[in-house]
Amino acid sequence: MNKGKIVMQIFLLLTMSWSYDALAEKVEKEIEAPVHEAVGIEQKTQAREVNWRTEKEKKRLAFEALEKELAMLEKERNTEAARRTALIANISRKMKQLEDIAEIEGRMSPFLCELLDKIKTLNARDLPFLQEERQKRIQALEELNTNPQVPVSEKFRKMMEALLVETEYGTTIEVYQQTIPLSGEETLVNIFRLGRLRLFYQTLDKQQCGFFNPAQKVWEPLEDTYLKTIQAAIDMGLKRKPVEILTLPLGRIMVQ
C-alpha cells in the first residue's frame, strides 16, 4: 500500500470522525433542548398548580367566612324582623291604650265634676262641722279638677279620698273646740259630733249644753239634765272613759 492511499484513508477517517462528533453534538443539542423545555414547562405547571391550590384554599376559606357571615346576618335580620314585629304590635297596643285613655278621660271628666258638685251640695246641706277643713278640701279638688296637667287617674284618686273622708264622717265621733253664737255672743265651746246625726255643744265651764238645729240652722240649748250625759260623750270621744250606752235627745245611742 502506497503512502498516498494511506494518507487518504487517514484523512477520510478523520473527516468521518469529525462529522460524527458534530452530528452527535447536534443530535445531543436537539434532544436536550426539548428535554430542558419540557422540564421548564413541568416546573411552571407545578408552580401554577401550587399557586392554584393555594388560591383555591384561600377562596374556600373566604367562601366559608362569607357563608358564616351570611348566616349571621340572616339570623340578625330574622331577629330584627321579629323585634320590629313586636315593636309594631307594642305601638299598636299603646295607641289603643291612648285611645282608651282619651275615651275614659272624656267620660271621666264630667263624672268627676258631678262628684265634686255632690260633695259641695253635701257640705252645704250638712251639719256645720270642720267647715274650714272641708272647704279647703273642696277648693283643692276644684284646682286639681281644672288642671289639665294632672292625670285623670290622680284626679279620680283624690276625689275618692275626699268621698271616703266624707263617708267616714257618718260613722265616727269627734270632739273639737269651736266658737259658736250663744245668746248673741261668740262663745268657745266643746263640740261633740255624733256621726252626721247631731252636733252637741258644752261650754268650757260645763254649765251650758245644747245642739245644732239643722232645720233652723241655729244652736239651741238643752236642759241641764243633759250636762252629765254630754260630758260623758265628750270624755268617750276623747277616749278618757270606756264606751257605754248614753241617752241623748236622739234616744238610746251606742257611742263608738
Written overview of the protein:
With 256 residues, this protein is an alpha+beta fold. Helix 1 runs antiparallel to helix 2, helix 1 packs parallel to helix 3 and helix 2 runs antiparallel to helix 3. The C terminus is likely disordered.
Shape descriptor reads: rod-shaped
Total DSSP E strands: 7
| Tally of individual helices | 4
Estimate percent helicity.
Answer: 55-70%
Structural class: alpha+beta
How large a portion of the residues is in β-strands, by DSSP E?
A: 15-25%
Strand order of the largest sheet: 1-2-3-4-5
The ordered H/E elements are HHHEEEEEHEE
Largest sheet: 5 strands, antiparallel
Mean pLDDT: 83
Low-confidence stretches: 251-256
Report the C-alpha radius of gyration, rounded. 59 Å
Features:
rod-shaped; alpha+beta; two-stranded antiparallel sheet; 4 helices; 7 strands
At a glance:
Helices cover 65% and strands 17% of the residues. It is of the alpha+beta class and 256 residues long. It starts with a helix and ends with a strand.
How are the elements arranged and paired?
Layout: H1 3-125, H2 131-145, H3 152-169, E1 173-182, E2 185-194, E3 198-203, E4 209-213, E5 218-221, H4 227-237, E6 245-248, E7 251-254
Antiparallel strand pairs: 1-2, 2-3, 3-4, 4-5, 6-7
Helix pairs in contact: 1-2, 1-3, 2-3
